[in-house]
């Protein structure tokens, strides 16, 4: 088949909207879609300082690559989770990606910083649970300490749709208040955005390949990913029968999200240890890691 | 395999809870579960006059059969939709079922009553849409006119789970306020209950077979059932991987249903034609069928 726009041999067949595109026009299409997503949901303004959390995987690498290409002022942060070889490999990919992009890369290593890697802490909490807590905290504190206006993550359409479906099947309606492409900043919480919100996993993979970004393919050894994979498979099955299912599902959610928003806001205090927002006296990060003084991520600028 | 309770050869393997039962113990299990559903959700009290809507299909036949066996005061209503041979067959099955049950059967024929069968009306509305409207109205008016305290329908767990999943995937949150085993009566709306709410389609089929109820298997020729079937297939796939998925999905919904309830109640007027509840001057049933005087379903009692 041939590109709809120029007649050259097709690089990819898009399902929704259905069309064939050559490599060049696909890359253009993809980048324009990111730009439009940013504008449509008012995610970022030119001139804002953006921190992209690069994990070594495809989604965050593509996010960083495209934001840079679109002319946003961005730097990258890689959090090395201290999960043995998996983390070493992830860091190596993140370094390679940022070198290609030409973006400054900051690296925070959990094990150096806190004494233990993810999975090494003696706790009854499953690793994925405190890993999420730890990543979220470090990302936010790093961005806050260094004056970033926004944190961009690599979540794509498939991630969002499967997140929503899973939380709906389990009626975790608390989580359903927290979806969407934009989590506005508030107090010491830095704004979080998802520029790949309307792009499918398949498109992200095709883009990475087209622009020559390599990335880690292995799953984290702690991942309990079975549920997410099930959900993604189910959604893809439905998508095949009815193209547009995922997009319509996610857009419908955005129209109805208000139903899940808590009517009363939880008042947050300041953590006695680190000064960041906390529900109790000490924030869940400082409590979990048993910190007695705050982490300081301020980077000396040369 | 053998019955968990008596060691005789098993008639069925239940998936959730997982156990083998002989025919006799399965029938007992099934009926006890209906009774417990009725009590748990406060659907019916002994002494209430119940109208069971029997379509000729398995679910409503089993509902009527079990309610009668459990000693409830019940009569049946069959609505002949006037869809050619399909409706003739359905009516014949309903008659046979009620004869077995030994329950009084009332029959309302749409075509005799209103001049056209479902599918014969010149309208842009799809048949399933005005069929639903028509059945709901006749069921309710018949029950109201004849002093019934409740209408029992045959909805089973699979129906409810697929209804919920479909409306969630499309974010039809208005409909999500209307699920559940009990729709309380209000004004001229007669209470509606679903005694098979916690029983799966598979269990209903096995019960019908065990007690010798025959039923129509064909789908209505107008059915756009593809979506419902897709949803049921998907849910069954998930159920196989994680037994209990459907039940937990439905129970989770019941805990969160309040999120979907409208904060402001729509004030209903009385239909100028029939006196039943209406959103405008004339109710949607009288408007659709162009009625000028009310239908009267009062039955002469001998
Ligand atoms: Zn082209
Ligand atoms: Zn803290
Ligand atoms: Zn037995
Ligand atoms: Zn009316």
UniProtKB/TrEMBL annotation, chains A, B:
The keyword Transmembrane helix appears for this protein: no
Database matches in Gene3D superfamilies: HUPs (3.40.50.620)
Binding-site list for Zn(2+) 1: 3, 6, 22, 25
GO CC terms, sorted: cytosolic tRNA wobble base thiouridylase complex
Positions of the tRNA(Ile)-lysidine/2-thiocytidine synthase N-terminal domain: 49-219
Highest taxon, organism lineage: Archaea
Keywords: 4Fe-4S, ATP-binding, Iron, Iron-sulfur, Magnesium, Metal-binding, Nucleotide-binding, Transferase, Zinc
Keyword Iron-sulfur appears in the UniProt entry: yes
A GO BP entry: tRNA wobble position uridine thiolation
Domain 2-thiouridine synthetase TtuA-like N-terminal LIM positions: 2-27
Binding site for ATP: 53-55, 59, 79, 154, 159
Pfam families hit by this protein: ATP_bind_3, TtuA_LIM_N
Gene Ontology molecular-function annotations: 4 iron, 4 sulfur cluster binding; ATP binding; metal ion binding; transferase activity; tRNA binding
Residues that hold Zn(2+) 2 according to the record: 271, 274, 283, 286
Cofactor(s) demanded: Mg(2+); [4Fe-4S] cluster
NCBIfam families per record: TIGR00269 family protein (TIGR00269)
This protein's name: ATPase
Source species: Pyrococcus yayanosii (strain CH1 / JCM 16557)
């Amino acid at each position: 088949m041939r590109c709809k726009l120029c007649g050259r041999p097709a690089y990819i067949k898009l399902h929704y909207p259905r069309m064939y595109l050559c490599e060049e026009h696909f890359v253009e299409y993809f980048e324009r879609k990111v730009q439009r997503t940013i504008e449509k949901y008012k995610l970022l303004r030119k001139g804002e300082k953006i921190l992209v959390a690069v994990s070594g995987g495809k989604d965050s690498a593509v996010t960083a690559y495209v934001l840079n290409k679109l002319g946003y002022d961005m730097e990258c942060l890689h959090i090395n989770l201290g999960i043995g070889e998996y983390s070493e490999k992830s860091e190596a990919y993140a370094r390679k990606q940022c070198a290609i992009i030409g973006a400054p890369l900051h690296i925070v290593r959990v094990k150096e910083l806190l004494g233990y890697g993810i999975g090494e802490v003696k706790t009854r909490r499953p690793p994925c649970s405190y890993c999420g807590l730890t990543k979220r905290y470090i990302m936010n504190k790093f961005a806050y300490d260094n004056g970033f206006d926004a944190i961009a993550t690599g979540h794509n359409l498939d991630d969002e749709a499967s997140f929503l479906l899973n939380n709906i099947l389990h009626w975790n309606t608390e989580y359903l208040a927290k979806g969407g492409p934009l989590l506005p900043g508030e107090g010491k919480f830095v704004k979080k955005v998802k520029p790949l919100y309307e792009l499918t996993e398949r498109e992200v993979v095709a883009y990475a390949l087209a622009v020559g970004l390599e990335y880690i393919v292995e799953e984290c050894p702690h991942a309990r990913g079975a549920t997410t994979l099930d959900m993604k498979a189910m959604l893809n099955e439905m998508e095949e029968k009815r193209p547009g299912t995922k997009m319509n599902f996610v857009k419908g959610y955005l129209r109805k999200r208000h139903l899940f928003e808590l009517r009363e806001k939880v008042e947050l205090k300041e953590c006695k240890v680190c000064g960041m927002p906390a529900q109790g006296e000490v924030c869940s990060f400082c409590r979990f890691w048993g910190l007695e003084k705050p982490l300081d991520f301020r980077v000396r600028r040369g």
